[in-house]
Design a protein that fits this description.
Layout: H1 30-49, E1 55-56, E2 59-66, H2 72-84, E3 89-94, H3 99-111, E4 119-122, H4 127-132, E5 136-137, H5 141-148, H6 153-158, E6 160-161, E7 164-165, E8 168-173, E9 176-180, H7 181-187, H8 198-208, E10 211-213, H9 220-232, H10 253-266, H11 280-287, E11 292-297, H12 300-310, H13 316-320, E12 322-325, E13 341-348, H14 354-364, H15 367-377, H16 390-395, H17 399-407, H18 418-429, H19 440-452
Parallel strand pairs: 2-3, 2-4, 10-11
Antiparallel strand pairs: 1-2, 4-13, 5-13, 6-7, 8-13, 9-11, 9-12
Helix pairs in contact: 7-8, 9-10, 9-18, 18-19
């Protein structure tokens, strides 16, 4: 899954917005707490008044809130409903297309103890926040063993919090290095034959008058790039073990190395003129254009190019010219840590049918379901076995590379305060052209501390 963007102003899952059974963080004003309480009560009343489809002809309904896709999730729901043989039916409900709005809708509804959310799609970076707030129902030990069997290690780690499986691994995703074969040949570079560094692809693009396309807009996709650069240099955005009270680790040699690469690209002729506003789709379009040379992006771009050729919107020669390789290295002697994305399947804490929701999750996240989904939706999944399926390999000629990249991927910071951390880092590092290795990592670290401790607002 493509990464989430942005940050909610109201943190219903943090110390700053008390959840039932918790107390306010010292220093929060009484007026602010009263305003939040009033807003929460109003929302709860509104949701309670809304009609809810809980049963149909006496059969319990399990509502599954999903990201928009091409209808493949609805088809999985229909098959799992049929296999339930009348014990329950799965009703698919859509979340907003915008990822920030997805998170905000779920946070607000669960903060109001909305009982209509039986199952929900949830991005890995947000799972600690939801779990810490008591919004998720963990799977039993037996269910966890079944759901974890054969799941790629990084994807499994991403859905584990405080030693419990808080969501079922469903999709898993990563970024690859995409390149135009003709450009790489002219530059004397073969990314498929050996690992390449950021410096090498920037120099190759400079020599050939092409671009290195990255996501540099002030949004979550930029944090994905920053995090992968830092992790590939052997560092992390937060100090390991500081999840509950985040301690920045950016002001370090890996953080400064990441900043140096961002500044190097931004100041070179290989940078897209629209770097500071570039997202996944704009980089995909530019990569397929006349100046396209290299790009980091999610695997969906290959299927999108195939569809564009079939629709007559892209020349077949462009598709034939696209190659793929492992995510670039930050340092020549250290393997890269590609980004980790995906979607997991979580049970709402206030569901009236938690056992049925768990049963539905076991079906929806089964090896068969994940293989079917990877073929139909053209989205990578968490089960390693899917990548050996012949149908999957026809859709993804680079299936082995995707699987291995997910296995080696680095998660984004694992903390209940992720949205604050992400927003602080992206703000300090934006625009890419203004990044200074000797200054920006330290500024980002200070901003993280200020925002997490309520001393600063973004």
């Amino acid at each position: 899954m493509r990464p989430h963007r942005g940050r909610a102003r109201r943190r219903a899952c943090s110390r700053r917005t008390p959840i039932s059974g918790t107390s306010a963080r010292p220093g929060a004003s009484a007026a602010r707490r009263r305003r939040r309480l009033i807003a929460g009560v109003g929302l709860a009343l509104l949701l309670a008044a809304a009609p809810a489809c809980r049963e149909e002809h006496g059969v319990p309904t399990v509502s599954w809130y999903v990201n928009p896709d091409n209808g493949s999730q609805a088809r999985l729901a229909a098959r799992c409903t049929a296999e339930a043989r009348g014990r329950y039916r799965i009703r698919v409900a859509g979340l907003p297309a915008d990822a920030t709005q997805q998170r905000e809708q779920l946070v607000r509804r669960l903060a109001a103890r909305d009982a209509s959310i039986d199952l929900m799609n949830l991005d890995p970076p947000f799972e600690p926040e939801f779990a810490q707030a008591g919004f998720l129902r963990s799977f039993s030990a037996a269910q966890a063993r079944q759901l974890a069997d054969g799941v790629l290690a990084a994807a499994l780690e991403a859905v584990t919090w405080s030693g419990r499986l808080v969501a079922a691994p469903l999709w898993a995703n990563t970024q690859l290095l995409w390149y135009r074969k003709s450009v790489a040949r002219r530059a004397g570079l073969d990314p498929a034959a050996r690992p390449v560094t950021w410096e090498e692809i920037i120099e190759a693009a400079e020599r050939t008058g092409t671009t290195v396309e990255v996501q540099g807009k002030r949004y979550e996709g930029y944090l994905v790039w920053i995090n992968a650069l830092v992790a590939s240099a052997g560092g992390s955005i937060l100090r390991p073990g500081s999840e509950g009270d985040p301690v920045p680790a950016l002001d370090s040699p890996p953080g400064r190395r990441a900043a140096a690469i961002i500044r190097r690209l931004a100041g070179s002729s290989a940078a897209d003129p629209a770097l500071s506003t570039a997202d996944e789709e704009s980089t995909r379009s530019a990569f397929q254009g006349d100046r396209g040379g290299f790009m980091v992006n999610w695997p969906y771009v290959y299927g999108a190019a195939e569809e564009a050729v079939a629709a007559g919107a892209l020349a077949p020669a462009v598709l034939q010219d696209i190659g793929w390789a492992r995510y670039p290295r930050t340092d020549p002697g250290r393997e890269s840590r590609p980004p980790l994305g995906g979607i997991a399947l979580a049970i709402g804490a206030f569901s009236p049918h938690p056992d049925l929701a768990a049963e539905a999750a076991l079906c929806l996240a089964s090896p068969r379901s994940q293989t079917e989904y990877m073929v139909a939706a053209k989205i990578p999944v968490a089960r390693a076995s899917a990548y050996s399926d012949p149908a999957v390999r026809r859709v993804f000629p680079m299936a082995d590379l995707i699987r291995d990249s997910i296995a080696a991927a680095a998660p984004r910071p694992r903390t209940p305060y992720y949205t604050d951390v992400s927003a602080a880092v992206v703000r300090a590092f934006h625009p890419p052209g203004a990044v200074a290795p000797d200054r920006t990592p330290a500024e980002a670290a200070a901003l993280i501390v200020g925002v997490v401790h309520d001393d600063l607002l973004l």
